[in-house]
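B., you asked whether I could sanity-check this one before it goes into the benchmark set. Here's the sequence:
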Amino acid sequence: MAVHAAEPESAVPPMPERTPKALREAIAEHTPDLLPDFDAHWKWAIADAYNLGPVPAFIARWWGEYALARDPELDAYVHDLEHRAAYECTDINEAKALLEEASKIHYRVRALEPGE
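And here's what the prediction gave me:
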């Protein structure tokens, strides 16, 4: 019988269920630096709302924020792209290419499903 080494645990936690409560719990556990902004945004945009219309937009925004922040390497890479485009590029086409790459990553992480 062959012995297989256990697969190393992924350093990037999986995405939570797509609910405000589950997302808040994941942020609190894995990316606590985001929690004050998440809570302040919730209180401002949702907590006193008389309808739930803003909730999908709130979840979409924070889903993407958490998806990046839970992966420090990807988060740093995206911030580097955005920083270089804003502060270092002197060529508009280069800046546009950097921002397009960052945008593609933002779009891709917003499409992640729970458990990914």
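One thing to flag: The two ends are 32 Å apart (CA to CA). Otherwise nothing jumped out at me.
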